[in-house]
Design goal:
This protein is mainly β. The protein has a single domain, classed as Glutamine Phosphoribosylpyrophosphate, subunit 1, domain 1 (4-Layer Sandwich), CATH 3.60.20.20. The protein has five helices and 14 strands. The chain has helices spanning 6-10, 42-45, 91-100, 105-108, 198-209, and strands at 4-5, 19-24, 30-38, 47-52, 55-60, 77-80, 83-87, 124-132, 135-146, 149-161, 167-172, 189-192, 215-224, 230-236. The chain has a seven-stranded mixed β-sheet. The chain has a five-stranded antiparallel β-sheet with strand order 6-7-8-9-10, with helices on one face. Strands 4-5 form a two-stranded antiparallel ribbon. Strand 6 and strand 7 form a beta hairpin. The chain is globular, with a radius of gyration of 17 Å. The model has no long low-confidence stretch (mean pLDDT 97).
């Protein structure tokens, strides 16, 4: 798989849905992750990211306009020791609890499947970054319906050890707009990450690459691999 520029891949479709990017900065110093949400309905667009502990959660921007909190209010990012978990739903908590109980990332997701939002059956996408004592690896997962049939759940797990500097993987829920929305296909896309300008320039480039009508919120974190310290940025369309 040839690497494509992340910002170009983000702009390829008006509606990639929710997306996770995990990789390594060009200088090899940082573990890089980004998570974004998009929305087409008023309910989906009525959200912001807020800090919660070392992670984040979604919250209604205008509580009076919230119609249905299921599937849209959750903690996308949680930190467990030296692991950072990032997902597009409440399976963040499932992974956190499973790993705390001694399960692997992959094992913890076996009790979950795609979202029950017929006819889209939105995939559950998840990732975990392992940063410990100067070593770095990450895993990603997608749980999706069997070609749009809810009777079956297809489970895919991907593991990346000692990732290359300046590259990452991009996993998102939909291949593009449609009715029903077509689920992501294949291995997480190999992307190049332009991190030379630092976290602020990277955050700005990712945010600007997302469709201006559909983007809602963006989370970006740069974590120093040698000591685990990190910087975080949050961008919300609703302010």
């Amino acid at each position: 798989m040839n690497a494509v520029k992340l910002t170009e891949e983000l702009g390829r479709t008006s509606y990639p849905g929710r997306g996770i990017v995990i990789g390594r900065s060009a200088d090899g110093k940082y573990a890089v992750t980004a998570y974004f949400i998009m929305g087409r309905s008023e309910n989906s667009r009525n959200r912001v990211f807020v800090t919660e502990g070392e992670g984040i959660r979604t919250e209604a921007f205008d509580p009076s306009k919230m119609r249905d909190p299921s599937l849209i209010i959750y903690a996308p990012v949680r930190v467990r020791g030296t692991d950072t978990i990032v997902t597009n739903g409440d399976q963040t908590d499932t992974v956190f609890d499973g790993m705390t109980a001694g399960q692997t990332f992959e094992e913890s997701l076996r009790c979950r499947e795609f979202e029950p939002d017929a006819p889209n059956y939105t995939p559950r996408i998840s990732g975990v970054l392992h940063v410990k004592e100067g070593a770095y690896s990450y895993e990603m997962s997608i749980l999706k319906s069997d070609e749009g049939e809810p009777s079956g759940c297809n489970r895919y797990h991907f593991s990346y050890d000692n990732p290359k500097g300046g590259e990452g993987r991009f996993l998102h829920t939909y291949m593009g707009d449609g009715d029903p929305l077509p689920s992501f296909e294949g291995e997480p896309t190999r992307v190049t990450l332009d991190t030379d300008g630092g976290i602020d320039a990277f955050t700005k480039a990712v945010w600007e690459a997302l469709d201006p009508d559909n983007k809602v919120s963006l989370f970006v974190r740069f974590q120093i691999i040698s000591d685990g310290t990190c910087e975080t940025r949050i961008v919300n369309k609703n302010r």
